[in-house]
């Protein structure tokens, strides 16, 4: 490496390099050096960076725990590299305290960069406090700063003085108990603390109890605040965040107080906040559009008095004791997602939500039906997708009284007692384009009056009784003029597929997966599939041979995976069926692509 004296660009990002080679100081023409790695054997080689005067762009220095003395760090002369825009300084990820935290602080002190820097990352620093340059007002060009896993630091540097700072992340500060005025620094009369900050993240701070903010002029432009894994935090948040639009609170079990005054907040995500007082938290959120609540075990009811009329998206996950009786008041909802719980909700009248576009239910053990409101016909003109997963007691859709003329995607899976779709399905859901059914063992058949005529895609997985009805020719898929894609997965008893006239001539994509007893592809079932472009076959161990060439003339793509017998028959130039498939432009057999 030392001989490449004309080298200008060296990118070694994401490698496992343990240390730099000798002679790096000879590469005086280097402009871009992405990483400089210090090993135990050559920690003092950091001084070689001093000769690389033209470095610009990004530089990451790792293994700083191996630097023997501060003088070596000073000779790296980062302060003289005026064109560096991004700097990352990393110590090792060991768990023990450095013998002398003052030593690490002196190393970091001597690694002070030039003030033109725009992005700074400091990771696994082992000092108890930062040197003066971190957060100094002279770094007026810094727009993003990440301080990560500096777990021996007892306080934070005065980062509020960085006048251009837009993004700040503080992660893994295990020793910080209080965030107080020291973080704001000393700003002059014309500037405000964190005057440009838009995104702020605190994460993995196990001892943090209190956030003191006596400066109401701080964080005036803050738009996004993320607080995660701060289990002791009780006294929380600046009081006035006039620009805040998104708030994420995750793993703050003792947090139950009010939100700040944030009149513009539109998105609120709450995870594992056990002492949550949701109604109090929402009382100032007059513009809230998205609310997500997960694993908040103490939450018993949805707010009524503080209900935001602007709410469009509601997601609730793992709140098993939550009472949903007030949810019908959320008439502005466009997206509803409920996972787990629904106790004691047995029926969910979608007709209460005229603006709904997307509905998702999962692991709702008590949910049995989606009824229409008694005595009324509801037209869900906006409903586009309806997914019901792992609701073992779900047994029925409404037969009448509820229509969704724009519904295009219904997916039903692991609903162990569901037997059928509505008999009037073709008129209730006339715009249906995608239908997915998986792990519904009691599903017996499709409606006798047929499926909606606009249906383009059908996916059937692990639904044995429905497969049996296919053999009785009760599916009527051949009557669907728009059907272009069909997938069958996990049919245990099928030996021949597809039956004659099962699939329409409009089909372009056919996926056959996990049919352990499939012995052959049915000649009569394929003879009218003249538009078939892609055939995908996987996990059919007993399937041995391909169809005749004349039935495969329209194919552009053939994919065969985990079918050992078929693979042998289709080997290029050798297999018995190679002549039948050799005309296909793209063939993939397991990991081999044959063109």
UniProtKB/TrEMBL annotation:
Residue ranges annotated for the R13L1/DRL21-like LRR repeat region domain, each copy included: 46-172
A Pfam family per the record: LRR_R13L1-DRL21
Protein origin, superkingdom: Eukaryota
PANTHER family linked to this entry: LEUCINE-RICH REPEAT-CONTAINING PROTEIN 57, RX N-TERMINAL DOMAIN-CONTAINING PROTEIN
Protein name: Disease resistance protein At3g14460
Organism name: Durio zibethinus (Durian)
Lineage summary: Eukaryota, Viridiplantae, Streptophyta, Embryophyta, Tracheophyta
Gene that specifies this protein: LOC111310337
